[in-house]
Amino acid sequence: MLERAPVREFRSWYCDSRRWDGYAPRPGDVVIATPPKVGTTWTQQIVNLLIFQSAEPRPVSMLSPWIDNRFKGPVGPVLETIEAQTHRRFLKSHLPLDGLPIYDEVRYIHVARGGRDACMSYLNHINGYTALAWAGLDAAGMDEPQIGRPLPRPRKPRGSSFITGWRAGGQRPVLDVAVVL
């Protein structure tokens, strides 16, 4: 039974909370709802091991679909995959909890990570995007009237502000201390 409808709607280059409108919960479903780069896949793998009670390798991305992912195609096939699953289902989301429907019979797992660490991990992640990945995300943004623009690119490579500032000083620092992020 629906305990709480989503409080807010979220739409970005990556996610669209409206895609959860077609989700039909089952008792025991698990929703792993975490921000990007804080341990989502790691948590999915732990839940996979607990559900199947086996260390046999399984494709977590197929077993634990990402419903709110908007850049890999329409939601219909994702919902069909979820509906066809006969095991205890565990689903992925990068939405905040107030963007998800909350059901009595569904369990929710949220993972947190230090903000600076998560941001640096995310920056490292997007710096590895291929031209094809950027094109897909750009298209998702352009197709969404509320966004209407390509995904912004990182301004500088990781760590460049720190290194530039260090070099601009022109002198060796008083303390031999370096911050490693």
Automatic annotation (TrEMBL):
Superkingdom of this protein's organism:
Bacteria
This protein is called: Sulfotransferase domain-containing protein
Q: Which GO terms describe its molecular function?
A: sulfotransferase activity
Which range is the signal sequence, renumbered to this chain?
A: none
| Keywords (A to Z) from UniProt | Transferase
Describe the location of the Sulfotransferase domain by residue ranges: 28-130
Q: Membrane-crossing residues? A: none
Entries under PANTHER family matching the protein: SULFOTRANSFERASE SULT
The family note in this entry says: Belongs to the sulfotransferase 1 family.
Q: Output the Pfam families linked to this UniProt entry.
A: Sulfotransfer_1
